[in-house]
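Chain entry —
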Amino acid sequence: MNKPKLSRSVNCFGIKWIDKEKHLYKITHEEEFLNKMFKDMKESGIDSVELSTLGPWNRQEELENYPYVEHAVELIRDHGLDFNSVHLPFSCTYWNFTSLDETERKLSVESVKRAVSHYEKDMPNLFVMHPDNRPKDESERAPRMEQLIKSLTEICEFAPRKICLENMTNEGMLYISSEAKIILDAVPKLYMTLDINHPLRQMPESYILDIGSRIKNVHVSDRDYDKECHYLPGKGVLDWDKIMSALCSIGYDGMLTYEVSKDIPSAEIKQNYEWLMTKWK
């Protein structure tokens, strides 16, 4: 069995806040940062990128900013890196896949289809997407699950690559493996991105063993006891011997995508990855 390979998540956008209370901001393009990051990755022996597109969050921003996403993919290629995956934008207002308003749900699905279509020229191996966050009223959880299943079925039928739904933290959608299994059983073409940092109500090794081979992408970082922190593995409270053993036992051979601070040098990530591989048994 092949060992999982090393990848790093890199966000191609920045945010300049104008007024946080009024939620006024400007999305910035980070070409100088991207060139430095990709050069650092290549020199450190990290050859794979998950391009994170945390914005845009509304229709106008989508139209304005996706040409820059295409340029970011060109920069990945120019630096001789592998464009393994893309983290699609997420917004619980613009993209509301669980909406009980059918018109709003359909508009959200169409937005995802447009986002996927932007990669027609340079297609990644898989797409990572978020479900909505936790329902404001728990009585809505079951009907929102039904809407999410409907949305994901339509998206998976459209997408030319794997769609990997990410588990959320706290009581967000898929916060425990039993909820994830309901979704995965209902949508046969759907796969999963397991964020090691997110399960706060269940240990990640247990989550991994429950989901098994439907996990096709793993976001790697560590946390403290009650919140996600995106530390390097070993800097928090998680048991990486158990996590790596669980991944090995399900035959995982995808990417270990480090989703950590942009200030951490790639050489330090590569060293941390080598440490994790000593636990691959």
